[in-house]
User: Fold these one by one.
Assistant:
Number 1:
Amino acid sequence: MTPFGAKVRALRQEKGIQLKKMAADLKVSSAYLSALEHGRRGRPGPGLVMQIADYFGLIWESVDELKHLAQLSHPRVPVDTGGLSPKATLLANLLAQHIHELDDATIERILAEMGFDEEA
């Protein structure tokens, strides 16, 4: 699940809205919305992000947060280490190979070290 998908699912559940109803209201397929929530689809376009923000009546910071989460929610992330040090390339490759082995506490420590302290 991506940060954007988790947020959309939480908003939907908080309002007691079924996935099929939300998909119909947004004029997208329920399969697409489900895939978006579960991270099986790439990040949504800005139009859909705003449509979802409007759907839930989000304002100001909440809209900005949703946009930010959408930008951070591509499930397959290419990392270009061209021009960086060999250690940077090593880190990127090791992270790609072992990210599935990291527990939430380790991931939270890495995110905090990188200055990302928000709940995703």
Number 2:
Amino acid sequence: MCSPAHGGTIGHVERWILHVDMDAFYAAVEALDNPSLKGKPVIVGGLGPRGVVATASYEARRYGVRSAMPMAKARKLCPHGIFLPPRFERYAEVAEVIRGILHEYTPLVEPISLDEAFLDLTGTERLHGPPERVAREIHRRIPNETGLSCSVGLGPNKLVAKIASDRAKPGGLLVVHPEEVQGFLDPLPVEALWGIGPKSTARLAQFGIRTVRDLRSVELEHLCSWFGPRTGEHLWRVARGIDDSPVVPSREAKSLSQERTFPRDLFDPEEIRAEIRSLALNVAERLRSHGLLAREVRIKVRWSDFSTHTRQLRLPEPTDHALLIAEAALSLLSRLENRGIGIRLLGVGVGELVPARFRPLHLFARDDLSQTILRLRERFGEDALRLGPGG
């Protein structure tokens, strides 16, 4: 049966959710640190032949450059652009300053990525005044205290707040009151709603549905028959601006992974094994920095024909030991048949993560050796130390 599930209300308290989205964040930080880049088409991402765009300044976007676009295409669209590799440590440093500002207004801050977050301002009026005032204050403070532009949306739920901040870009502030939600959403294209990607947009267009107003006019039963009960109900709800999802202030990592796309296909077995070891060490470093242990190790291999295979195994006990993770990853690699074609991407990941409240002692793998390896790599760089064939 297909029927809408209405969420509850928070008593008589009006719900207010704020969405803060930094504008072209990585490129903006680069221009902040190097003022000569201001007003220029800055493109941040992988600079190799198979790299992708992470962020493009608005000057670069005028030429059609977009996030997740292959860097080779970005260079063709904007040959005079300034292409830079990402500096994630610096971006995280700036993001921490921004997050500190947000936490002054509510503990309910949900970071979505380094450059955007939701805040639940419901019931904070006595401390900070009306949510609209808080929205204006945050919108003013972030540029004043960081030198970076942000877009802010305020609405009765996460869906509306996110769409509002998108519509306010770049650098704007948009408030949508509960009684304004339908009038705000109706004229928008359906792809502005959550969960409606290119395929769903094309399918809806086959039924003559192009705007939110068009979608809202369709009976729930029809949507369920076209898309199935789950998706049909989702479309029915978002077309009416219904979203009961909470702001979750902290997210425990469920997995960590590291991937590498190579500028040339790899054929040599020992070179492939060396890359797996290097990726395993990177993952172990991230586990240590997050204070986590992993019970599952997985690998990902993408061949030159773009076919992708994954393998995983469960460890007898959780670990962050670099050598054990590398050994498990190599074991998984050995399970894949040699297809006689090159490899374009390798990945190593870990899952079933738990806090590192204690670290198991391993009979055949000394923990001090793992810590020494990671400390040397942290101090002298990833290439300072690599695991040999026996490690």
Number 3:
Amino acid sequence: MCIFLPCFRCTGERVEEKVNLIVDGKILISGLTKNTARSGIYFASFNIFKELLKSDKVNVILYVEGKNYLLLKEFLTQEFPKNKIKIISDIEGNNCISLWYLYLSAMKKRAKVAKQSIRKFLCILALLILKPLVKIFSKPLDIKRYGNNLCFLSLCFAVPEIFKNCRNYTILYDITPLVFPDYFPSDKVGFWFASLMDSLNAKAGYFAISEATKKDFLKVAPVLNEKQITTTLLACDDSFLPVDKALVEKVRAKYKIPEGKKYVFSLCSLEPRKNLLRAVKTFVQFLKKNDIDDLVFVLGGGQWDTFIAKLDAEIKNQEDYKDKIVKIGYVDDEDLAALYSGAEWFVYTSQYEGFGMPPLEAMSCGCPVISSNSSSLPEVVGDAGIMVDYDSDEQHIAAYEKYYFSEDLRKENAAKGLERAKNFSWEKTGKIILDKISA
């Protein structure tokens, strides 16, 4: 008889062993810098990770390759100062050689970002000397120590080789590099995606961020079947709420949005698939057609140099209206809600999206939305905004006119958007993932 601890034999109740959930933390390192690396995928990964930490169904363990180990520890210190999160690496052992190797790898990465060529060279030289010693004094990670109830979750990238034989899941975002191959050369941005596609298999599990994304992957990866992929809609941060006029004015001044002018807002990376050339061109045509002088188009987001040249050329052809297009570049996270709240409406007529976070953020702030009716965007916007064909100039102009000349329509869609946004939450997203993993 068990005197001290009840067990299944005594009580008749099965005590379930918690899942040891190892999460790939590589994408989280993007949180250390305020630039375009903090993309939609980063924010989704960060919020999903936060939800996982709240659960009592799993033991969360972060995994990172050795060269990123110290960078990830720095990120965790900044974002979760009160949390003790276990972190493991593919290099085990606390010997000095391994730690120096990790430190120099981190410094090499920092030197590259800061364009400090001499420091980068010295780090590379030291790493070449240390690398064989690391192999001698360090041993590979032994995942058997985490028991049979082990699961690996990749927030973005292909599952590392060491975890391919255990139960594993990967979050799928979109197939943009396949839809626009010219903009994703395999030796640069598209390399991680090519590795992901190569890793897809019939045994693993997957989470797709929209029904559209699920259908896309089933179409391009015949090895997958529908039952493997669970649709897991995303959400936006709780900070996206309507804000007061005083804060809107303060943020307007910060980004030099012209005084005395109303503005239309668009937030995205300035790349071809976002359809900004058409959005800008038709905005100018709309201004001309209706002789409007009290409205400007504010573009926020990271910039692609080649695309900016095309955008500037497009605006240059409309010389009299060039001052009606305001490029404000990267927007700090804390300013976004104010920019959405102060806009007359938000434009996001992208050709292709895996989910479409910005329209949801805009709706959450009470900003009327114009979006395209392609890919996943109808799943996000529904009937709460004006939807257009991404390749129709006429529909863009008509949508601008509907909002500009009808305050009632703007108010109606703002209210619809606020209500629809309540259907999306990170709690729901996390629950779907955790229920699947712990089933």
Number 4:
Amino acid sequence: MPTHYLACDLGADSGRLILGTLDQGKFSLEELHRFPTGATKVAGALHWEFDRLLNELKTGLKKAAAKNLAIASISTDSWGVDYVVYDERGLPQSPVWCYRDARTAQGVELVKGKVEWPIIYAETGIQFMALNTIYQIVTEPAARLAPGKHILLIGDAFNFFCSGIARNEVSNASTTQLYNPVHKCWSKRLFDVLGLREDLFAPICPSGTKLGPMKKNLAAEVGLPPIEVVASCSHDTGAAVAAVPASGENWAYLSSGTWSLMGVEKPQPVINDQSRALGFTNEIGYGDTVRLLKNIVGLWLIQESRRHWNKAGKKLEFADLEKMAAAAPPFVSLINPDDSRFLSPDDMPKKIADFCRETGQPVPADIGACVRCIYESLALFYRCTLRKLERLTGQKIERLHIVGGGSKDATLNQFTANAVKIPVLAGPTECAALGNLLVQAIALGHLESHEAAREVVRNSFELKTFSPQDSAAWDAAAKRFEKLLG
């Protein structure tokens, strides 16, 4: 008999409610509802429309109920670091801040004044990024936090909305830069030095925790029975990596979406001077594994550029941009995706042009040249990151699995294979939602292990292999690119 599950998968650009069906060792996915999630600017500040997103979830749940299927469970995964503050009545407070809001710069300075960076890294193993929760939370006024009942990360806030049980699932908690992956708990040292209430952050639970039945009032409103709510992997990258269809050893993953996250699975955190200097992060994955990875600005560069061109009246789909990039001349201009200017929204093509001028390179001549510049730069950054990962682990990577929305982009996948000089296996696309569903199935006893879940993925989805080409040209471009990194 087929078994059905629901995954609410929230990305920084769009969200979706997906129906997953496990039948005879294969998973199939059906998108029931898709909606925009993008942050809204209010009086110059970036917020998430939290109430609207909850209403979008309810719309999706009503569509699920209309299918008249026996649904076993539901779970939500989301981007990391952002959070919801709940008041003493347990109600969410506005605003729900977006990690791209400029206030994080103030947070960095506040934290710097209280604790040194090597101590923060030793406590958390998380790379420095101004958007991390640690730098956001210190900007909150005491009047907002003092009466607070609890704080939940975004995906966990959705699980709370469904179940009434407040827990921060460990994969999401580990993105905050307030979690200690060695002691496996919130960092008491950082909470003390920053003057934060540890009890304000809801307790941490393992990936695959059954939270209990859906709240009766919500179930009645959307027309579902009180199905099980599971904290699967609440962080979308944790969920995506759980679904990587890999086997054996010596593989790395690239979760390709708004962010690119490249790394390997390890049994223990890697926290030392070298990992700190190289900017690697230790996030928690399913089964208490460690995702040793680097956060890289990813398809955000394309998404923001497209948003700008659309506003200017040039209505272009992502497939159009890919064709234009493939037709543009190679290696004319390159950018450093890690440059801080590319983190914030608004007129990305101008930021790219400015970077090229400042580094003595031609400004991209047209849209195709701009997109090709982004593609080539990302592929070369992946190469540099993979080499650093090999140095850090002493492990030679033999193949790279690309999962997530970016795995559909054949041009970028081929460029990545060319740059990293190993085979690239692309797919599945909806890997965050799929990992979310797989962990639910394991939690409910429908799949016996993580290894069995990955075998289900291999049996369910066709992977496309990209073999390296044009090595000499990419090696020459890599030498140019490395000079831009500073």
